[in-house]
Design a protein that fits this description.
single chain, 133 residues, alpha/beta, Hypothetical Protein Ychn, Chain: A, 5-stranded parallel β-sheet, 4 helices, 32% helix
Length: 133
Amino acid sequence: MKIAYVFAHPRSASYKLGQMILPQLEAGTHRVEVVGMFFFDDNNFVLRKGDPIGERLAKVAKDTGMLLMMCDMCALERNLAEGEPRWCGPDGKGRTEPGVVRTKDTVDGVAVGCFPDLYEALGGNPPDQVITL
């Protein structure tokens, strides 16, 4: 079974991912294929360069081909990206052409985007289930 995780609730990345899911992924005992992880709000901070959880996660992602993506607006607000929101303009209205945003000071292999980017990135390897933590 293929799974994608969405880290939306407080401490879901630092605690649930860092203390439960990641150790299982590293040991090969998680029992599902994790194809992607999407991070919201302060959960993005585990993806900072030098963060112990983020560095370990980046290694797993590189070894497995798993997608790691930060919410663009959340990453911009937390200084983990630079540029502009991908699909929302400064006036709060949706865009038809994406803005340019890049990760900043994150672990290797992290992407930044919004839901359309997530759907596109997982399109070639879609999950069977999405779990929001």
